[in-house]
Amino acid sequence: MFSPRGLQSMMLLVLLGLGRHDVEASEGKQVIHKRVGDSVELSSNLPTEGVKRATWKYKNSIVADKDSGLFPTNPFQKRVKFNNTTLSLTIRDLTLQDSGEFSFTSTTDRQRPSVSITLLVHEPISTNSIVFSNVTEDGSNGVCTVFLECKANPHSDVTYSWTVGTQTRNGSRLQYSIKPQDGDTTFTCTASNVISEKLASTTLRCSNTGTNSTDDVEASEGKQVIHKRVGDSVELSSNLPTEGVKRATWNYKNSIVADKDKGLAQTNPFQDRVKFNNTTLSLTIRDLTLQDSGEFSFTSRTDRQRPSVSITLLVHEPISTNLIVFSNVTEDGSNEVCTVFLECKANPHNNVTYRWSVGTQTRNGSRLQYNITPQDGDTTFTCTASNVISEKLAFKTLKCSNTTGLSSTKGIPMIVWISVAAGGGLLIIIIIIVVSVCLCKRKWSGSDSNELTVYADISDFSSEVGSSDKPCSLYDTIDSRNSPDRQMPQTVYDKIQIQRMRKTSVSPYQEVS
């Protein structure tokens, strides 16, 4: 049997993945990678029950304490929060300077293991990789040797790889041989760090001149394609050395944007959104719009004309709203199989790639036809819509009912159900209107104030009737109908005609006599 302390030691060893037997001295080490501007939550991953003291430190500074809360001198100031219940630390708007070692120490009835967390904040690769190229030609055998170098911003912690056709080589520099028969050869540099990746391509050709010179480099063109999203900024660079450059011009489509001697052209299409660096000869455009997409060209010369550089800028609108999924299910009662028809739509609709996932199966395209059976139960269909800069997902769960000899209504379009419901509601409204009109007519026909009624005639008795006689009324007539000692009228109308003082009346009952 293990003692309570020994059991606790073994559990902590399993949780923290440590090889030491002394838990008090053991340390749980974590490494967290984040990008500039992100937020991070640091947790010790230890139980919080019974904790009497707990302290977070960053390097040699105390950040927070269970009893005192955040320290006023902590290096993160208003960007940090301390949760006194979970004992976690949250830091927002991370900077490169926030990278470093965090330590967490705590005690219950005794000292617990300290936890060390290494936070590494990285700057994403913000611009496309810069490719420097040079081609030398050996006239004896018609082979060109290509020298390429790739550089990314930032320069630290970046891994480079080159791709030529199906071949891949690691490193920022590449030496490669091409022949005139190869035609245009595209070299692609991939620069990546832990949180981002950028690509740059250049296309080169070996000419068949049989000379050992670099003249053919002048005719070669470095082609780049840059993808950006609406609202972003972009820096366009020729990737050529700037020393000794006498003339340099940036063109957008058929318009001059900037010139080394004159600076920005007043008629440039970007106006206040563009800047030209006269030292690096780069062009920076901010607040990009969809209309900014197009071809940029850079021409320059030193003592002779240099190769022109062509850059294609493609500005994309991110998928801004959730996807819309249309679905319809039809059932075949003969074999108890349901055919599912689905369609996925995203906003914006252009330049979007769709992919459907069902279980372990994946199919491309915005539309999907798929068969399911009652035995499958709930089946989830996932649509992934993506463009170069964004991605959205939508889910739809459908089931095939277990009805044989089927005349199921599942396949009836929703518009039919809406039409039936609308027709039924309209019929009910028409019936209510007709009944209301009929009731109103009956009420109007019985409320003529100029027509005398039975009760009006009864109330007009003559004053000549003796005081000893009973007043004549409906109730008197009904009470005295069966008296044997006097002959009385047998109906209400008889009595009215005998005993009342006749007046001119329009009552239909008086005209009967």
Total domains: 5
CATH superfamily of the largest domain: Immunoglobulins
Q: Roughly what is the average pLDDT, rounded to an integer?
A: 75
Number of strands: 32
Assembly category: single chain
Shape: extended
Helix amount, in percent? 10-25%
Structural class: mainly beta
CATH class of the largest domain: Mainly Beta
Poorly predicted regions are 1-28, 209-222, 404-412, 449-484
CATH fold naming of the largest domain: Immunoglobulin-like
Strands, helices and their partners?
Blueprint: H1 4-16, E1 27-35, E2 40-42, E3 53-58, E4 61-65, E5 69-70, E6 80-82, E7 89-91, E8 100-107, E9 114-122, E10 130-138, E11 143-151, E12 159-164, E13 167-170, E14 173-178, E15 185-192, E16 197-204, H2 215-219, E17 222-229, E18 234-236, E19 247-252, E20 255-259, E21 263-264, E22 274-276, E23 283-285, E24 294-301, E25 309-316, E26 324-332, E27 337-345, E28 353-358, E29 361-364, E30 367-372, E31 379-386, E32 391-398, H3 414-445, H4 454-459, H5 474-480, H6 492-499, H7 508-512
Parallel strand pairs: 1-9, 17-25
Antiparallel strand pairs: 2-7, 3-4, 3-8, 4-5, 6-7, 8-9, 10-11, 11-14, 12-13, 12-15, 15-16, 18-23, 19-20, 19-24, 20-21, 22-23, 24-25, 26-27, 27-30, 28-29, 28-31, 31-32
